[in-house]
Amino acid sequence: MDPDVTAFDWFALAPELTLLATALIVLVVEPFLGPARTKWVNPVAVVGVLATLVWVVLLAVDGTDRSSFGEMFVVDAYALLFKVFFLGTALFVLLLSYRYFQEIRTYQGEYYFLVLSAFLGMLLMPSARDLVMVFIALELVSVPGFVMAGLRKFDLRSNEGAMKFFLIGVLSVAVLLFGLSIVYGYTGTTNLAGIAEGLAGLEDEPLVLASMLFVIVGFGFKISAVPFHFWAPDTYEGSPIPVTAFLSVASKAAGFAGLLQVCFVAFEPLADVWAPVLGVIAVLTMTLGNLTALQQRNIVRLFAFSSVAHAGYMIVPFGLVRPGEADVNSQAFTAVLLYLLAYSVMNIGAFAVVTAVARRHPGRQTSDYAGLGQRSPGLATALTMFLLSLGGVPPLVGLWAKFFVFTAAVNAGTAFTYFLAAAVVVNSVIAMFYYLSIARTMWMDAPAVPDPIRPGLALNFTIAALAVVALAVGIYPEAFAGFADASTLIAAGP
Amino acid sequence: MIVPAGHYLVLAAALFTVGVVGVLVRRNLIVMFMCIELMLNSVNLTLVTFSRVNGNLDGQVLSFFVMVVAAAEVTVGLALIVNLFRLKASADADDVDALRS
To answer: How many CB atoms lie within 10 A of CB A181?
Structure first.
């Protein structure tokens, strides 16, 4: 371990410290100022997230790569891109939660504290360059997630979803750690770049390969890849809807950030071994996710399986990685980043509409959406846009996300990667069936009840903003691509 | 007598296996949870052993964090199990089946 582990850079840590302070303030508002003031909790959290965002922007303007705790915590372009992305997600999750939790009238302080703690973990994740930090960040995202999923504790289904999430989450961490402990045994370091050096030339060690499998399984649970996805639909269905949006986007993105760092930095020398495994998992994940989604009548379960399928598309680039080929690897890396950004915009948008409709129709069935086009044309238009974008229709952001994954797979240029590219195309077609069937229900079917849905200001703003982003980025993808190109782990890697 | 590192690693692997089998076989949520704790402790044993073999402290540092996080997970997990027991008067995994696709 480096001698300067205690040296740290306050400026580099400012975003995390600001968010931590906000989380603590939010927690004490209710006990100290009384239940009447809990309505201030959400705005305080929003202000805190905005202040954090200011620090991140200042760090980006400053532009120098910084590190703390002896290279364990690094602030570079990659980390900053993810931080901006997570903070944007945090803002939208807070806006989604505002009305929902105000109407539940309880656990507001606790809920926002947990959300902010989880996002603190997410801010740490892309900066982590050491197994200790990766582990801490992953747990800081997961553990609040367990509680948030079970927040409706009077509701058996919420509790059940949380229970499954918890057992699977803890189990996956144990498996992941066992793999990491063996990797540490072979390489003698917990630093990611150091592990890459130590692993080079160990292709034939069965224990190293087994440990890598353990790590993939551990992350597979986090990102709900098939066959480790079975908890996701139940947990998503049982959780409060804003929490479902959080789990399906933010917590999955944190898992991907961790997987990116571990795979592209630490395990890069052995990519020949793990990349085909992840490629096969990708095809299984998207196919099974899409085929199961086709049969769902519950809208939340449908989006749960759709999010499993999207995880599959995002794993495809991992299947392309080859040791030492910076071209192929950096293209794959960019494809994952872009897909994550695009997926978040459209999925949070879709969940915002689901939150709005579920206020009026708590049953959350797809049939509740019948005639939404007549009842609330604005909501229906936005949801249609998000659905088409998830399906990959031009000129929306989802098309470009799929396009980058597809081109990365074709450019990698082996039979296996062509197969992956074909799988992406076939699956996009299957997915269109269920996305379009919801759209048809909204516009063609007669409404069961005539009254319009009234989502309220915060939700309306969220939905409109995300719809505009989905369309604008779809029309000007260059901005988006340039944004992600600016940051890569490959150049900075070993 | 100095016990060689291999012995510790075999013990850790055995504990890990017992944990995995326990999670898969047992149906009582508390016992399943205990088995996961067993897996985490086998990880700690592996880390500490390798830390000694490698002659640096990185593994021991990580094992401390594993302990801290495991303690946090116990708090959350027991709270969830207690709440489930209040709602259903059961801590059996097979009774937790309200959500089905």
So the answer is: 30
Exposure class string for A411-444: b at 16+ Cβ within 10 A, else e: ebeeeebeebbebbeebbebbbebbeebbebbbe
Chain B residues whose CB is inside 8 A of the A193 CB are: none
Structure tokens at A345: 């915009």
Rounded to two decimals, the ipTM of the complex is 0.94
- Chain A residue numbers with beta carbons less than 8 Å from the beta carbon of B72 are 139, 143
* pLDDT band, residue B92 (cuts 50/70/90): confident
Contact residues, chain A, for B94 at CB < 8 Å: none
pLDDT at A1 over 50: no
CA A309 to chain centroid, in Å, comes to 13
Contacts of B16-24 with CB under 8 Å at 24 or more apart are B16/A178, B16/B42, B16/B43, B19/A174, B23/A167, B23/A171
- CA atoms of A119 and A52, how far apart (whole Å): 11
Extents of the domains making up chain A:
10-491
The verdict on a CB contact (< 8 Å) between B73 and A153 is no
> If contacts are CB pairs under 8 Å, which of residues 28-57 in chain B contact chain A?
29, 32-33, 36, 39-40, 42-43, 46-47, 49-50, 53-57
Sign of CA dihedral A243, A244, A247, A250: negative
List the one residue out of A139, A91, A81 whose CA is nearest residue A116: A91
| pLDDT for residue A494 | 38
pLDDT in tens, A248-270: 998 899 899 999 999 988 898 88
Q: Is A365 on the interface with B (CB under 8 A)?
A: no
Whether residue A493 is predicted with pLDDT greater than 50 in this model: the reply is no
Domain boundaries, chain B: 5-93
Contact A235, A149 (CB under 8 A): yes
Structure token pair of residue A447: 């409404």
Q: Does A198 touch chain B (CB under 8 A)?
A: no
Instruction: Read off the pLDDT of residues A194-245 as tens digits, 9 standing for 90 and up.
Output: 998 888 878 788 888 889 899 999 999 889 998 888 899 999 998 999 999 9
- Average pLDDT of span A58-85: 86
Q: What is the mean pLDDT of chain A?
A: 88
**Chain A residues near residue B76 by CB distance under 8 angstroms:** 143, 146-147, 166
Residue A10 CA to residue A186 CA, distance in Å, equals 34
Query: What pLDDT, on the 0 to 100 scale, is given for residue A492?
Result: 43
The topology (CATH level 3) of B5-93 is Helix Hairpins (1.10.287)
Q: How far is A153 from chain B (nearest CA, A)?
A: 7
